[in-house]
Design goal:
The structure is a single chain. The protein has three domains: 37-128 and 232-269, Periplasmic binding protein-like II (D-Maltodextrin-Binding Protein, domain 2), CATH 3.40.190; 131-229, D-Maltodextrin-Binding Protein, domain 2; 292-461, Lysozyme (Orthogonal Bundle). Helices cover 47% and strands 15% of the residues. The chain has helices spanning 2-32, 37-43, 67-79, 91-99, 161-172, 189-197, 208-215, 242-255, 259-269, 292-299, 306-317, 337-342, 353-370, 377-390, 392-404, 412-421, 426-429, 441-461; strands at residues 45-50, 58-60, 63-65, 82-87, 105-111, 120-129, 131-136, 154-157, 178-181, 203-207, 221-226, 231-238. A five-stranded mixed sheet has the order 4-1-5-12-6, sandwiched between helices. Residues 48-272 form the Solute-binding protein family 3/N-terminal domain. This is Transglycosylase SLT domain-containing protein. It is a peripheral membrane protein. Keywords: Cell outer membrane, Membrane, Signal.
């Protein structure tokens, strides 16, 4: 009898343990799967993981931008939730963060591989990426149209996937490609593309989306020769978020031809970023533009030479009051919509020349205050111009980098300007002193130099 009682007690304890164990297992399952589409909608926020890059996500003039960012924003809006971006250090870190529940969705051209198919659901638009030869259309020689024509040619690439693909291709062709491995830390793939456009090097290699984006800055590039197999890529979510994956699939399918999606695609990969420029309006009459009176009137408020303000306007819009940039900046002084509102421009008046100049001067005055730590007023002007182009955050990052590496953070030429260039390099934009991530610094580098050199030309030709 006692033995039966003992057996009964053991059975009862076993059943209780099984029940408790099941409950724990179910609770754990609930925890793991606790953030699919329904929970995201309840929270009111979609947390998107991506990387800093010219094609994914970056900050420009204080505004979040990037092709993947814009698509994420459109997708979040379709779900009726707010978007929050979390930037990872690299692809591995991005996947780790997703699996750890630090984000809901990876918005990036994530390569589709067997390695991650058990952990991830690939979703959204499946894009095809491949590597291309970046070359220059110079009108003198025919561009390469076949990989066999690379034999005997000099191709400059960074270490990593581009170098590996080129080496493999060279082996497939039996040798003969002159491969130059560019190991300098301060040189990026985009820098090499720029060097091709400028005729400094003949060829480099890049992913097709990066090459397409850079072609909008340099129309003389030819990116038609593919040298790698196609790689499928897409967005991704955790395996336990099938509803979110289905929503992303449906959104992409329904919105690939929408005006918003099309506008984003054109903004980054089709619209030319170069502004055509015209000469001085009338050298004989001493006129730079039709808006000289405005420059003279408002330049006094910031104690600038009006010809410097004119040089800024010329660089920004070519004195075209109807100009709208690829990033959405409008009017004579090309203010971003958010900045124009903050500076008091009435809605719908962004292309009014006086409102534009008045707001630009107000913005310059505010930036000047933020940069008061730069003691030399003439030197500070270059920092203000750089901030006008890039946004103050990136200039503060470049100053911090200059200071860290032993340069003068209060001098632009050959000091801080060198570090705005390096803001497109992962080693530098991920440095702890940088707070604003990736930035295509070559545009700002050239912007300041162009304005100052044109200002010197105006001073020689046009009376004050």
């Amino acid at each position: 009898m006692k033995r039966q009682a003992v057996i009964y007690l053991i059975s009862l304890v076993s059943i209780c343990c099984i029940v408790i164990g099941c409950r724990k297992t179910n609770n754990h399952a609930d925890e793991v799967g606790a953030h699919d589409l329904a929970q995201i909608k309840d929270s009111g926020e979609l947390v998107v993981l991506t990387l800093y890059s010219s094609t994914s996500y970056f900050i420009y003039r204080g505004q979040e931008m990037g092709f993947q960012y814009e698509l994420s924003e459109q997708f979040a809006k379709s779900l009726g939730v707010k978007l929050r971006i979390e930037v990872a250090n690299n692809v591995s870190d991005m996947i780790r963060k997703l699996l750890a529940g630090e984000g809901d969705l990876i918005a990036y051209n994530l390569p589709i591989t067997k390695e991650w198919k058990d952990s991830l659901i690939y979703c959204g638009e499946e894009v095809i990426t491949h590597q291309v030869i970046v070359q220059r259309n110079n009108g003198k020689t025919q561009p390469l149209t076949d990989v066999t024509q690379l034999v005997g040619k000099d191709v400059y690439v960074k270490p990593g996937k581009y170098y590996e693909r080129l080496t493999n291709l060279n082996n497939e062709l039996g040798g003969g490609i002159h491969i130059h491995k560019v190991t300098g830390d301060s040189i990026t793939a985009e820098d090499l593309i720029t060097q091709v456009a400028q005729g400094k090097i003949p060829y480099t290699v890049a992913d097709n989306d990066l090459a397409m984006l850079n072609k909008t800055y340099y129309p003389n590039l030819n990116i038609g020769l593919s040298i790698s197999f196609d790689q499928r890529a897409s967005w991704a979510v955790r395996k336990d978020c099938p509803e979110l994956a289905a929503a992303a699939d449906k959104w992409h399918e329904e919105n690939m031809t929408s005006p918003a999606y099309t506008a984003s695609m054109k903004r980054y990969f089709e619209i030319s970023k170069a502004i055509p420029h015209s000469p001085i309006l009338s050298l004989r009459e001493g006129k730079i533009s039709h808006y000289d009176d405005l420059f003279k009137k408002y330049s006094k408020e910031i104690d600038w030479d009006w010809r410097l303000l004119a040089s800024l306007a010329y660089t920004e819009s070519n004195f075209d009051t109807t100009a709208v940039s690829w990033a959405g900046a409008k009017g004579l002084m090309q203010l971003m919509p958010q900045t124009a509102r903050a500076m008091g421009v009435p809605p719908g008046m962004e292309q009014n020349p006086e409102e534009s100049v008045k707001a630009a001067v107000k913005y310059i005055a505010a930036t000047d205050k933020s940069l008061r730590t730069i003691p030399d007023k003439q030197e500070r002007i270059k920092f203000i111009l750089a901030s006008y182009n890039a946004g103050l955050g990136h200039i503060l990052d470049a100053m911090a980098l200059a200071n860290k590496y032993g340069k003068n953070k209060n001098v632009w030429d050959n000091n801080v300007e060198n570090y705005i260039l390096l803001k497109s390099n992962e080693e530098y934009f991920t440095d702890p002193v940088c707070k604003n991530g990736y930035f295509r610094g070559i545009e700002t580098f050239n912007f300041v130099r162009d304005i100052m050199s044109r200002y010197e030309a105006y001073k020689k030709k046009i009376k004050k």
